[in-house]
Amino acid sequence: MKNLLIFSTLALATSLVHAQGVNLSCSQAQTLFPLEAFTTEADELDIEADQSEISGKDNYHFSGNALLRSSEYFLAADDIGISKADESASATGNVRFQDSTFQITSDGVNAQKQGDSMIASIGNARYLHLESNANGSAGSIEKTVGGVNFTEATFTLCPLGNSDWLIKADSISIDEEANLGVADSTVIEFLGVPVFYLPQYRWVLEGRGSGFLAPTIDTYTESSNQKSGVQVRIPYYFNLASDRDLLLAFNQLSTRGSVIEGQYRQLMYGNDGESNGSLSVESQYLFDDYVTNQARWLLNTALDISLNDETSFEIKSARVSDDNYYKDIYQDADAGNTLTSYLSLSFEDEESGLKANLYGESKQALNNTANQYSKSFEISAEKSLETRLTPLDVSIVATSFSHKDVSKTTATRVHGELSTDRVYELNSGTMTTNAFLSTSSYLIDGASNQSRVIGGFGVDAIFPSQGQATLFGNATNTTLTPRIAYHFTPKTAQGSIPVFDTTDKFGGLLTYDTLFSGQRYSGLDRIANANDITIGLESNYIDPESGDSLLNVKVAQSYYISDQVVSDTAGVDYETRKHFSDIAASVDLALNELSFNSAIQFNPSTTSIDNRKTSLSYKTNSRNFISLAHANNNTNETIELYGAYPINASIHVFGGLKRSLTTGVTEKETSGFAYESCCWAVRVAHFKEKVSGMYDNSTNLELVFKGLGSSSSDMQLRLEKNIPYYRADLTQ
User: Which of its termini does the chain have fewer beta carbons within 10 Å around, N or C?
Assistant: First the structure.
């Protein structure tokens, strides 16, 4: 009897595995009957019954509240019979069984041993998996030599007595040797209504299995033509092996046509059996766009692999059939304006300090934006040297720049640099010195070659002092750090050098770190002259227990000896500037659930703030927060508002808004609500985004059966991108 029931519970456990795996949730303290205690001794067996009799020497019958209790299981029934002669057993009337994993109730159990196997049948059974709360019923459970068969079976992860969602199957067959389960005529019911049907459903008993995932239904309005449509996406997951899988999906857009999607993923392994990389391939194909009457497609591939301890290889390809694919078909206008495909081979030997890299890229412009320069080929090497006087870094990089516009200047740039830096401990602080010498050559296609040799040095000193203070009633450790730096780089005319990958860091919000970096430009095409002194002050209040910064205040300003600076405008050597920079200041406060961040750029000449960014957030959890952000660069003033609020324990609302106060135009808007019960959840979200003067609108519906995974991971990712702090995973 013991062997029979333990095997039956194991068979039931295998039927709980499905395509996405079970996410344990919604645990309840409900049971089919009060939990029973087991005996404390391994060989101890307690038998209780109102009546007992022995028929012959091998037949035992217990009746009237009969029960068996061991260290591993509990069995109770109105009648329990055991026959040693034919090695059979039976239990009838109010059968209750419990082990460490399951509770089962049924009308009766019959079992007989055949060789080393137990043949058994359980009628009209109910079961409960104690750990996951998975429960259901079966008209009968038949255990055979080859496996276990269930008829008229149900399964749910809702609490006992709650069948908001339910899986029904006419029959379920479990084959342990083949590690396979097969369910015939499978129906998923939601609130008593059938919502999904499969003639046959197969899954593996252990590990991930193949099967349909929940479909997605969305409504949308296209910005390009203002057509409204409905999108239905049905995905199917293939578990190919423990290290690889495949997701296929049929995606029907009523305004565009049918899209076939595929995503393949594979882990790579080295000779030692350890994972050393990954491969992924994503594709989408629309055979005939109803609007353009053309085939449209997307292909993304990525390979990242470690060839050995020092060498790694990475290749990424991102291509679409046309520059409006993401906006029209992918339904995401916020995918960016450029797709970059690249190849990279890297070498790094930490012991010798040698680094090398081989790189090449190709770019595709999106959303009717201009093409950008690409690094069609780049090779670089860097070596750290230890000398008697100071450590030295030697580097060289050669880059070939190309452009799809034939009117643009193209060239190959070779840049070599020797640099050093040292740190000196002072009585009252720390001083860091740095110096560099670089040479650059530009082999320009169809024009005169250009070259540049330039060097410079800098000194940066900090003088921190420590103390204690009270911040909002809390004791804190404090640091006050005056800082002064001097940078020198001679003025060198560079207007004849083309600009490929250089941007002006002063073009955005000026920061404390930018001023102390001593470098105005990113990239190598421009090296700004410097004969500057930068002074700053930083104050920090630190939690003595966690070491986290509670309040940080920074302010800095640079003073220039020369009123001319190297320009990043092609054909212009220098541009005029003031003898001092704007003042960069910032305040960052983090106190419990409250956070405040503000950065400003103050213009002393006009005594006005030329650029600012401010944000205020209050967050108790991912479903209860509010965040307000304001930015003004004197060209465009914007406000952003994000938040989520729980109406009650089951319902929360969320939203996000980005609006230009200068133009009065809403640039992006997200809103929605979610309902969560103990075993299912639903979320509706509306997305509105301005694209080329028009608006893209879409409304997404996400229905989640707890334990069966999410129906729309893309929707979850989009919400997290559009609403900072919102991390409400409905599957949990």
Answer: C
Is residue 116 very low, low, confident or very high in pLDDT (cuts 50, 70, 90)?
A: low
Q: What span, in angstroms and rounded, lies between the C-alpha atoms of 235 and 241?
A: 19
- The contacts of residue 165 (CB under 8 Å, 6+ apart) are 156, 158, 188, 189, 190, 191, 679, 680, 705
At 214, list the tokens. Answer: 């929940």
CA-CA distance, 732 to 726, in Å (whole number)? Answer: 15
Type of residue found at 188 = I
Lookup result for tokens 């043949």: 119
**pTM of the entire structure?**
0.78
d(CA 638, CA 351): 50
The pLDDT, as a whole number, for residue 146 is: 67
More confident of the two residues 144 and 61: 61
pLDDT band at 679 (very low <50, low <70, confident <90, very high): confident
The model's pLDDT over 425-437, given as tens digits with 9 standing for 90+, comes to 999 999 999 999 9
What is the distance between the alpha carbons of residues 554 and 293, in angstroms, rounded to a whole number?
A: 58
| Residue among 173, 167, 103, 174 nearest 133 (CA) | 103
pLDDT in tens, 209-254: 676 676 778 888 887 778 889 998 888 888 888 889 999 999 999 9
- What three-state secondary structure class fits 416? strand
DSSP string, 280-335: EEEEEEES--TTT-S-EEEEEEEEEEESSSSEEEEEEEEEESSTTHHHHTS--TTS
CA Rg value for the chain: 35
- Longest pairwise C-alpha distance within the chain: 115
- Give the containing element (helix H, strand E) for 556: strand 549-560
Helix and strand numbers (H, E) in the chain are: 4, 44
Whats the size of the chain, residue-wise? 732
Residues pairing with 41 in the sheet: none
Q: First CA to last CA across the chain, in angstroms?
A: 38
